[in-house]
Design brief:
Blueprint (H helix, E strand, L loop, with lengths): L2 H4 L3 H4 L19 E6 H13 L6 E6 L12 E4 L13 H10 L1 H8 L4 E7 L4 H15 L3 E8 L5 H16 L3 E6 H11 L8 H15 L8 H8 L4 E10 L3 H9 L13 E8 L5 H12 L7 E8 L6 E11 L9
Parallel strand pairs: 1-2, 1-4, 2-3, 4-5, 5-6, 8-9
Antiparallel strand pairs: 7-10, 8-10
Helix pairs in contact: 3-6, 3-9, 4-6, 6-7, 11-12
């Protein structure tokens, strides 16, 4: 299905070294890529995610509690309010949104340099549910492509659910991509691994790393922000899929992506897909094509699919796959299919 799109690169796959100092790879200019954490949970995730890609991705932290910014160097830290407090904007998203609005002159200094903002937050409280909406609006207004990853409260937290529901629709309207994470699914998976779901959010870190590597480094088949903008411009919903596994197990990679802590969402009938495949030095065209077919099967017959591929020696026999899927039918929630 996709071989004709990538056949010209088959000879390169076994020989290209993306870390060749001669110039076959590049690093984005400082400030072009930004990870932002909004609220306590968002800051926790953002710090862990940015640590994986700190050499070419900036970090911004926004919260009413100053303690979430402790120990952080070389980051843009914005405090919601004049007086640091652990209570801060708890349960008051309107207050957090208003305080974030007053910080716009400060935020503008680094947002005007950014091209893509990956914003991580938890909905259902005050800072995340309020400041995240205003921050995303400011970023989009500054010309940034905004990808928001928003954690949805546990089902048992009914009051937080109400706050989150109201915030989610507004956050979606000011984001190019808005990914919903299920804390119930994330906590269940963390228990299976024997880790704390707040500190052991490996999926969020892998998603951030995969997306930023996709856009920051030149690969065999190059993707850039124009490709991403083309995909997320499709009307309808959008989401992200990420997975890592053995290079000969394309279908298993897709199944692993489906088992991520995403809120239930069907990708059937999607009209756009940006797919980045990253593998070890011996990755072959056949393996890339198998992964591409696994991740695009079920999309609309007229879907626009953009594929990128890159060699990373550290992956050896493994593959890392990141997919941005767009043009999803609104209200589709039958589970990932």
């Amino acid at each position: 299905m996709l071989a004709e799109d990538i056949q010209d690169t088959s000879a390169e796959i076994d020989s290209h070294n993306p870390h060749d100092p001669s110039g076959s790879s590049r690093i984005m200019e400082e400030g072009e890529l930004l990870i932002a954490g909004i609220g306590s949970l968002g800051c926790t995730w953002a710090k862990a995610a940015q640590a994986r890609v700190s050499e070419w991705v900036d970090l911004t932290l926004v919260d009413a509690d100053e303690s979430t910014m402790d120990g952080v160097r070389h980051a843009n830290c914005l405090l919601l309010g004049d007086t640091p407090s652990e209570v801060g904007c708890a349960g008051m998203p309107q207050l957090a949104e208003s305080r974030m609005r007053t910080l716009q002159p400060i935020a503008a200094h680094f947002l005007e340099r950014a091209e893509l903002v990956l914003m991580l937050t938890g909905l259902g409280g005050g800072s995340g549910s309020g400041a995240s909406i205003e921050f995303a609006r400011q970023a989009a207004q500054a010309g940034c492509l905004v990808i928001s990853v928003a954690a949805i409260p546990f089902e048992a937290q009914s009051e937080r659910q109400k706050i989150a529901d109201a915030a989610l629709s507004r956050l979606s309207s000011v984001s190019h991509v808005c990914v919903e994470l299920s804390l119930d699914r994330m906590a269940w998976q963390a228990r299976e691994r024997g880790v704390d779901w707040q500190q052991g959010s490996a999926w969020v870190e892998e998603l951030a790393e995969g997306l930023m590597r996709t856009l920051a480094n030149v690969g065999l088949i190059n993707l850039d922000l124009m490709d991403l903008r083309a995909i997320v411009s499709k009307s309808g919903g959008s989401t992200l899929l990420v997975a890592e596994g053995h290079c000969d197990e394309a279908q298993e990679l897709y199944e692993r992506a489906r088992s991520s802590p995403l809120a239930a969402l069907s990708v059937g009938g999607a009209t756009g897909c940006l797919l980045q495949v990253e593998g070890g030095p011996h990755m072959t065209l056949k393996q890339v094509e198998a992964v591409a077919n696994a991740f695009t099967d079920g999309l609309s017959i007229d879907a626009q699919v953009i594929i990128g591929a890159r060699v990373s020696p550290d992956l050896q026999e493994r593959m890392r796959v990141v997919a941005v899927v767009s043009g999803l039918p609104r209200g589709s929630s039958e589970g990932l299919v």
